[in-house]
Amino acid sequence: MTSRKSKGLIVGLSLLAFALVIAGGISCKKAPEAAKPGEQAAAPAATNEFEGTVKVALGKYLYLPTAQGLDIVVQGKVGSGDASALIGKDIRVKGKISTDKASIYIADSIDVKEGGQWRTAFTRTEEPALNDYLDTKDRYNYAALTITNFNKQEEWEGKGKVRIFGKLLKTTVTEGGAQKEITYVVLSDDKGKEIGKIIVDSFTDYTQYYLQKLRLFDKFWFYLNVKDTVDKKVRAKSHELFHADVFFIGLF
Predict the structure, then answer these.
(1) Which of 148, 163, 192, 232 has the most CB atoms around its CB within 10 Å?
(2) Is residue 5 left, alpha or beta, with left meaning phi > 0 and alpha meaning psi from -120 to 50?
(3) pTM summary value
(4) 49-123 belongs to which CATH class?
(5) pLDDT tens, 156-214?
(6) Do the beta carbons of residue 207 and residue 245 sit within 8 Å?
């Protein structure tokens, strides 16, 4: 009698162990593999296609609300023009995220929707040239510049690449009987009083594209190259400080 009970107990425990092994196997198949110490969990595969209406485009850059956080690069002509020809159009873009620039999406092809039908408007045939792109990590190469007075030229002379917070202003002046548009970066103190104005000689395409993206804002961080200082006598009248080329703008 005791022997029969022992055998029954052994069989029961064996069946239970077998059931636990099977359940464990199923559970392991359903559970995602955990990251090893010091490693990141595998990210889901990024989509290689976006569809939507083009809101902003300039040069080789365009923005789709459906591709948030990404600037789409269209390297090459779109018809007889550039990416700006796609503003307001419904498009379908296929491509890939840049391997070394996480916010850049390189378009391989673009289809435009017209009359309910898709037609190909762009096919990439060359490698993207991103010489005017400023990566987030590279922004720290531009030292923050503080200017306290338009007479203190030592605060900016010889500084090279800098970043400074200000407001963009465009105005028209008359020189030699002709009208000329001048663009300034206006600097103010904590109370809003004007300190001085930086004369902008040029913008990169990427900067002008970002100005359109950030059109709802009026103040930015300007990443620029300091150039020639304005003559002291002129500076005293106009508060124009120096000339600069703007490489990028941003909210930080």
Answers:
(1) 163
(2) alpha
(3) 0.76
(4) mainly beta
(5) 999 999 999 999 999 988 777 788 899 999 999 989 999 999 999 999 999 999 999 99
(6) no
